[in-house]
Amino acid sequence: MCETGNLQYPERGAEGAPRAFSPKERRVLQQINRKVAAAESLASLLTFVFESTRDVQPCDRLCIAFLEEDGHRIRSQWVKTVYQPVRLPAGYAEDLQAGSLARVVREGRPRLINDLEAYLTAHPDSRSSRLLVAEGVRSSMTCPLRVGARTVGVLFRSSRRPSAYTPRHVAMHLAIAERLSQAVDKARRIEQLAAANKAYGEMLGFVTHELKSPIAGAITDLDVLLGGYLGGLEPRQREKALQMRTRLAALLGLVGDYLDLARVETGGLRLRVSEAVDLARAVLEPALESVAPLFEARNMRLVRRFEPNQTRAVACDADLLRIVVLNLLSNAAKYGRMEGEVRLGADALPDAFRVSVWNEGRGFTGEQQGRLFRRFSRLAIPEFKMIQGSGVGLYTAWRIVRLHGGTIRARSEPDQWAEFLVTIPQPLVTHPAEAAAGS
After folding, report:
1. Does the reported pTM lie above 0.70?
2. What digits encode the pLDDT tens for the residues 389-436?
3. Residue numbers of the domain that contains 303
4. Whether residues 42 and 143 fall in one domain
5. Would 139 be classed as within a structural domain?
6. Element (H or E) spanning 234, and its range?
7. Distance (Å, rounded) from C-alpha 435 to C-alpha 429?
8. Of 389, 348, 394, nearest in space to 371 by CA
9. Predicted confidence (pLDDT) per residue in 141-173, tens digit
10. DSSP 92-126
11. Which of 64, 98, 178, 205 is 20 to 30 Å apart from 430, CA to CA?
């Protein structure tokens, strides 16, 4: 055992072997193994460790902390105590200085502090020690959490009694840390990904929302100029203004796509179902009206293949379903053949209703079909590279259709046509996972 006064760094020795533990200790370790194998959440797993090990290990406080910023900072992730108040809570972070904790991380060895008050006297700049002493903690045992040869964090066990821990306790604490390391590292990474995804969605929503108003304002100003309200324009000026308006309108469409995606990513899509939606009036016609300028610009023929009296009184969220139809029509206008035909259809089925969008055009192969509903995915077709698009419209449509408990599928005859079909069950049966995400 390496020892410097009150501070000790016990060696990893024979005490850690399973045969050295008592039957009760072995049972506790086996229970932890089962909890880890059952893929428990980080909080429930650590709560179980805290409660099940107090009979074999003194423990008034259990804390897990992870390394951040390439090992230059450590942040507490979870804390459990038998007392209040907690002055060093979950979320507390500080830089990892060249002190005793840095040695635990660097060498992968446990640390034992027998008298935290004496340790604080010797290390008066240790903020964490000062906060723990204020909580009443008097001794502490720290073990590294290691995945392979890499230290990812530390497991702290503390007592409000001085000199509470023996080498046997250290061995048991090490054994617990070894069993937890991979499970808690995996859980932490999943939580990090979820937090990063949420932050990305919020940033996406903020940026696109801030862009929407000035772009829409610029389009309005151009309409004023083109309308002659500020005087006539020369032919070259009019041509340039029209080009600017076309580009800004395309950019505004991209902003709308990303706003919809931000709502999807941050759980902002909430299904608000009406039981008697007039599908033609509330969904299909408004979507057609929005996309009509795209059809006109490419001289495309639009064919309506639905009877208004066959599409009334359906159960859906009309606002969200309108986004789906608008995205499908926009795709047909962008990727369909110039002067080609586009068909919008709606049918009443025995236990569902179906909306279809068909267009003449390049279409896609069976291999390319698998990429259609992925986020930020666009087909690698040379003639499509110059077409402005976000790669999120079909993904957003897929999420909305799933929110309705429905299906969306695509089919095509390459170089001839492409078709997308949306089927929504009646009565509505929402997808449980998607409904939870949107609520």
Report:
1. no
2. 456 788 888 888 988 999 999 999 888 999 999 999 998 876 544 444
3. 270-438
4. yes
5. yes
6. none
7. 10
8. 394
9. 999 998 888 888 999 999 999 999 998 899 999
10. -EEE--SSHHHHHHHH---EEES-HHHHHHH-TT-
11. 205
